[in-house]
Amino acid sequence: MTNRENVDVEYKRVSVQELRKDIVAFANTEGGTLYIGINDDGSVAGVEDSDDTMLRLAGSLKDGIAPDIMPFVQIRAIERENKTVIAVEVAIGSARPYYLKDKGLKPTGVYVRRGTSSQPLSEAGIRDMIVESYGKSYETCRSLNQELTFEAFQKEMAVREMECGSVQMRTLNMIGEDGLFTNLALLLSDQCEHTLKVAVFQGTDDVIFRNHQEFSGSLLSQLEAGYAFLDKNIAVKSTIEGLRRKEQRDYPMAAVREALLNAIIHRDYSFNGSTLVNIYDDRIEFVSLGGLVPGLSMEAVLMGVSQSRNACLANVFYRLKLVESYGTGIKRIKALYKNSEKQAVFESAQGAFKTTLFNLNIEEQAETVISYQPDAEKEIVMNLLKRQGSITRKDVELALSVGTTKAYSILTKMCDEGALIMQKAGNRTQYKIR
């Protein structure tokens, strides 16, 4: 036995709770031996009751460290200088990183051996160690957050009359072989750290916001709330054909749903940014982080080839009947736009993937604008004002079946000519007869 502490040797005078961090550090680094009953200078002090010390120590390690570290620990009593010393031999663990349960999977709970001391490991170091131990699949790696709840997930399972216990969560790969939650569980939990941001812009650029909202929580909650927001903010164009009223949404809602599902299911969650949906007058853009899976070309994707980055997440959505089958999202979107003048566009860049859906009614709106002469437009606006007392730009868009830019131009011109006055009403702008 060496008489000095080293990267793989630690001395403790007595058995104290803090020695657990040294055990964790050994298991996370190269293994080592901790001796109880030896002073820092290497002199032997011994322990009084070796059986009690070993019993209490074993219980402390079993209850206080996760994952289970006991298969890699040997505790034995040895004799040194006619005194009893406890030797705790720790092998490098196979389920690193090990951590203190009461501190969690974070720097205050994860330690590694540096020289003669045990030091906390940074969050970046923890992630790297997880990848080293479990491979590069984000969703199957152990979650840094183990304090997870699953209200939204359990609700979805209950609606489909599916069991939602630990057995089912293991089958779905939400719980790993070490008994801890994976990143897949994190994504489906109420504590999911990623968000969905949806913005509605005025016109065809991102200069002026009309509305925006950020959705958090389980990816299942984000999907439901995000789709409801899109549904609410996608207009319906009404036309009269004979005695019948014909209505058509600006976008096929089935295509919107598929694009949103693709953005959520296939993005790279090792990036911390949000999934983005931007609504303009003429298009909707769905932007997800990560780009294409390495080795898969855009040509192959458009041909119908599918390779899911998050196979386990896709499987959960499939089991919940949120997707019909694997790899059909882009094909369905293309089919829904088959007879449209502007086809859906799919673009990939390093670190990002974008789906663009175009407004089906935008050409019809342009044709309708041409049919109105300036004086007729003004007359319609004035008649609307006489009926309502005040109007908004949106009222003019609907009355004339025009886009935002055209409606704003008409109202601005009428204000300049002295026919109307513009007033602020909270967050809204209203127009009245001067």
Care to describe what's here?
A 6-stranded mixed beta sheet has the order 10-9-13-14-16-15, with helices on one face. Strands 1-2-5-4 form a 4-stranded mixed beta sheet. α8 (253-265) runs antiparallel to α11 (329-336). 35% of the residues lie in helices and 23% in strands. It has helices spanning 19-28, 50-64, 123-134, 151-159, 166-171, 183-188, 219-233, 253-265, 298-302, 311-319, 329-336, 362-371, 374-388, 393-400, 404-416; strands at residues 9-12, 32-36, 65-66, 73-80, 83-90, 99-100, 111-114, 117-120, 196-201, 209-215, 236-241, 244-249, 275-279, 283-289, 345-349, 352-358, 420-425, 428-433. The longest helix is centred in the first third of the chain and has 15 residues, at 50-64. With 434 residues, the protein is α+β, with helices and mostly antiparallel strands. The protein has 3 domains: 9-134, Methyltransferase, Cobalt-precorrin-4 Transmethylase, Domain 2, CATH 3.30.950.30; 196-362, Heat Shock Protein 90; 372-433, Winged helix-like DNA-binding domain superfamily/Winged helix DNA-binding domain (Arc Repressor Mutant, subunit A).
Spatial ordering of strands, largest sheet:
10-9-13-14-16-15
Give the C-alpha Rg: 32 Å
CATH architecture of the largest domain: 2-Layer Sandwich
The percentage of residues in β strands lies in: 15-25%
Structural class determined from secondary elements: alpha+beta
Describe the global form: elongated
Fraction in helix: 25-40%
CATH class of the largest domain: Alpha Beta
Distance between the termini: 97 Å
- Assembly type of the chains comes to single chain
Per the CATH scheme, the topology name of the largest domain is Heat Shock Protein 90
Count of domain modules: 3
Largest sheet: 6 strands, mixed
Mean pLDDT: 87
Number of strands: 18
Question: Can you tell me the residue ranges where pLDDT is under 50 for at least 5 consecutive residues?
Answer: 364-372
Organism: Selenomonas ruminis
Pfam families: HATPase_c_4, SLFN_AlbA_2
Protein name: AAA family ATPase
InterPro entries: RecG_C_sf, Schlafen_AlbA_2_dom, Schlafen_AlbA_2_dom_sf, WH-like_DNA-bd_sf
